[in-house]
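Progress note, sequence design subtask.
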């Protein structure tokens, strides 16, 4: 009812390890039966800003930054967010000093299925990719360090040239 009237609401959500799958595209899977909750940050406050009947999901603003999910947003299935075992303590603010909630950026087009790329299997397909990315990052780090060393040497050479030019000017002025 809040969202239909234009009011976002904050809520708490129990987090499970599967939430990490949402980091790339923002699609939050419903926890599998028997899945354990996260050891750290096992619950999290979020802001529900909309919903998509087409996707059967709530559109949620996360506080983990724009790099997480879909530009800082994620899509939580109705069945996850409406389950009292997973979601708790919803609150909304209905009266504000200003009503400027940035409506000009809202997308009322409900033809997009935000969950179409959802991965419903329980296999953690990302482990191999993450290991490869870590290896790539390590290699990239070495290259970056080499480039930084070369840049430092170039900067030192330029400084020496400038000092030599300054000395030459001083010598000319003394004559």
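Output:
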């Amino acid at each position: 009812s809040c969202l239909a009237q234009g009011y976002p609401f904050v809520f708490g959500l129990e987090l499970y390890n599967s939430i990490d799958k949402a980091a790339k595209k923002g699609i939050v899977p419903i926890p599998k039966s028997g899945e354990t909750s996260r050891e750290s940050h096992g619950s999290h406050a979020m802001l529900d800003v909309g919903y998509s009947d087409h996707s059967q999901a709530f559109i949620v603003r996360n506080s983990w930054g724009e790099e997480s999910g879909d530009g800082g947003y994620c899509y939580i299935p109705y069945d996850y967010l409406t389950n009292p075992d997973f979601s708790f303590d919803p609150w909304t603010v209905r009266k504000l000093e200003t009503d400027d909630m940035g409506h000009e950026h809202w997308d009322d087009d409900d033809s997009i299925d935000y969950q179409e790329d959802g991965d419903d299997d329980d296999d953690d397909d990302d482990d191999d990719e993450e290991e490869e990315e870590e290896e790539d990052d390590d290699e990239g780090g070495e290259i970056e360090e080499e480039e930084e060393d070369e840049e430092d040497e170039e900067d030192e050479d330029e400084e020496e040239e400038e000092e030599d030019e300054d000395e030459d000017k001083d010598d000319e002025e003394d004559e």
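The two ends are 87 Å apart (CA to CA). Work on this subtask will continue into the next period as scheduled.
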